[in-house]
């Protein structure tokens, strides 16, 4: 017995744990309902889609599907990997694919991801491990749609209300890790899935520490309490010592995200295009980048990222022109005695954005604009401000996929509860362009259409696009087998190992 206890203690001591931080409690660890960054970040370890991007973000490869191909322009076949098990040991089959699809299109849930399945006519099980997806017409993102994490039919088939289901905090997936512990505002622990179909991850556990305060996260990283963490440019340039670089590797790349000031176009005060243009001309974007990022970011010029084929290089960032901004405001009926007043709301989950909001306040004041600021906790920001659309302007960001989908953010259909058209942008011409583009398979023609949308959106200023930050990631040198790629460092994390020798 003593030998057995000693063995258990020994195994526990040598178990490897990857320590990470998340800024907020995850709201729903359910891939089709995960809309906040914390939920999405953790759910990706728990669930798989049928396909995924390769490490270069350039090619779609199989995940739960071992093979996929088109029978014709409207028919997509997926051959599933056999031997895949849900975390509870139940086999994954074509029933789960069909169940996930039917759940996504159900009126019982509210999910922005449902829009991606609007062109699907039917999903049919050919056999236990083969699925046919029939589309109403050709769809440029037909494959990417199936990167969505899949749900277990055997657990959820009788669930009456998925939005509030216990499953959302006690999920069962097919992923390389499974949920072991969920302590709100404390710790979320994932344990390696011994039966993962691609092989058991080499790191035994992943521990997410819920730390709302950015400075506390940074101090924990510096102390070595976290193995991986994001580093802000100011911290990188001014607050890290040689000792830190001796213990951590740094991986830096341009991120797949941008930050913007979104104007609530449902409000009368922002319906006048002269007002929106004036605000844009009063902002010095390069000054924001210079002050906050120390050359670790670039000015954002529009809704699609420079790395995508939708990017319009002919569209330049507006050049600050205070005199013209004042002139436009005067034409709209505002002056020193009657200033234009609005509030910017943002979250403290990002250490940069509250400072960016202060700079915007300072810059806009030069044009006679009075800006009020409000900084909120992330979940309160989402639930009380962003999704109910109760704001003048929000300082927020989007992380985007390598293939943009303008429908999700810019079509009037998605100005609804749970939709991602947060600012209420509506343009009949844009709607028609987006609808037409959805069935265009020719990538050259599609890219041209996207570039036209890019210019139209920037001309109308529903967002004031601000900056694209670099992603600076510090990784403890105890973590081995990391391979940096265009997609980042996470593409091969099941092969990572952690040196547990003290």
Short précis:
This protein has helices at 2-14, 37-43, 94-104, 153-156, 214-223, 233-238, 242-247, 273-281, 285-293, 322-331, 353-365, 378-386, 406-410, 428-437, 443-460, and strands at 17-22, 51-53, 60-62, 65-72, 75-80, 120-127, 130-135, 177-183, 187-192, 205-210, 228-230, 248-254, 257-263, 297-299, 341-347, 370-376, 393-399, 463-476, 479-480, 497-498.
Fold and architecture overview:
It is a single chain. 28% of the residues lie in helices and 24% in strands. It is an alpha+beta fold and 502 residues long. Among the domains are: 48-155, Dipeptide-binding Protein, domain 1 (Alpha-Beta Complex); 257-470, Dipeptide-binding Protein, Domain 3 (Dipeptide-binding Protein, domain 3, Roll), CATH 3.10.105. The longest helix is centred in the last third of the chain and has 18 residues, at 443-460.
Q: What proportion strand? A: 15-25%
Span of the ends, CA to CA: 28 Å
Q: Could you please say which CATH topology of the domain at 257-470 applies here?
A: Dipeptide-binding Protein, domain 3
**CATH architecture descriptor name of the domain at 257-470:** Roll
Structural class: alpha+beta
Beta strands, count: 20
Q: Given this structure, which CATH class of the domain at 257-470 is correct? A: Alpha Beta
| Cα gyration radius (Å) | 24 Å
Question: Please, how many helices?
Answer: 15
Overall 3D form: globular
Q: Helix content range of the residues, please? A: 25-40%
* CATH level-four homologous superfamily name of the domain at 257-470: Dipeptide-binding Protein, Domain 3
Major β-sheet profile: 8 strands, mixed
Low-confidence segments: 1-13
Report the mean per-residue pLDDT as an integer.
Answer: 93
């Amino acid at each position: 017995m003593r030998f057995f206890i000693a063995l258990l203690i020994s195994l526990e001591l040598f178990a490897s744990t990857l320590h990470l931080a998340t800024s907020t409690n995850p709201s729903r660890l359910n891939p089709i309902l995960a809309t906040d960054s914390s939920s999405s970040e953790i759910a990706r370890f728990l669930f798989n889609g049928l396909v995924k991007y390769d490490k270069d973000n350039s090619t779609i490869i199989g995940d739960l599907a071992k093979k996929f191909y088109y029978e014709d322009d409207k028919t997509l076949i997926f051959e599933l990997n056999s031997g895949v098990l849900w975390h509870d040991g139940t086999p994954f089959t074509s029933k789960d694919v069909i169940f996930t699809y039917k759940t996504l299109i159900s009126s019982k849930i509210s999910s922005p991801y449902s829009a991606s399945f609007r062109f699907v006519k039917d999903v049919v099980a050919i056999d236990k491990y083969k699925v046919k997806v029939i589309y109403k017409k050709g769809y440029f993102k037909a494959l990417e749609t199936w990167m969505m994490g899949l749900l277990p039919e055997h657990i959820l088939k009788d669930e009456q209300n998925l939005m509030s289901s216990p499953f959302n905090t006690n999920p069962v997936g097919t992923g390389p890790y499974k949920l072991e512990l969920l302590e709100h505002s404390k710790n979320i622990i994932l344990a390696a899935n011994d039966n993962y179909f691609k092989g058991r991850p080499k790191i035994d556990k992943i521990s997410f520490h819920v730390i709302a305060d950015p400075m506390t996260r940074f101090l924990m990283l510096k102390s070595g309490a976290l193995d991986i963490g994001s580093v802000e440019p100011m911290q990188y340039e001014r607050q890290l010592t040689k000792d830190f670089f001796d213990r951590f590797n740094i991986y830096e790349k341009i991120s797949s995200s941008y930050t913007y000031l979104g104007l609530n176009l449902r409000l009368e005060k922002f319906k006048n295009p002269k007002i929106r243009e004036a605000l844009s001309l009063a902002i010095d974007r390069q000054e924001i980048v210079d002050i906050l990022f120390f050359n670790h970011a670039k000015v954002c010029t529009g809704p699609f990222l420079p790395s995508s084929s939708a990017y319009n290089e002919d569209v330049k960032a507006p050049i600050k022109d205070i005199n013209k901004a004042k002139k436009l405001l005067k034409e709209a009926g505002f002056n020193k005695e009657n200033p234009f007043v609005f509030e910017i709301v943002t979250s403290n989950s990002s250490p940069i954005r509250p400072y960016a909001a202060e700079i915007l306040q300072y810059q806009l004041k030069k044009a006679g604009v009075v800006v009020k600021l409000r900084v909120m906790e992330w979940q309160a920001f989402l639930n009380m401000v962003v999704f109910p659309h109760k704001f003048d302007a929000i300082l927020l960001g989007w992380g985007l996929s390598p293939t943009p989908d303008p429908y999700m953010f810019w079509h009037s259909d998605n100005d609804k509860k749970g939709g991602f058209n947060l600012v209420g942008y509506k343009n009949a011409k844009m709607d028609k362009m987006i609808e037409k583009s959805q069935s265009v398979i020719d990538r050259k023609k599609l890219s041209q259409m996207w570039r036209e949308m890019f210019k139209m959106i920037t001309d109308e200023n529903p967002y004031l696009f601000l900056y694209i930050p670099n992603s600076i990631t510090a990784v403890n040198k105890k973590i081995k087998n990391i391979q940096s790629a265009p997609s980042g460092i996470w593409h091969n994390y099941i092969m990572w190992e952690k040196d547990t020798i003290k």
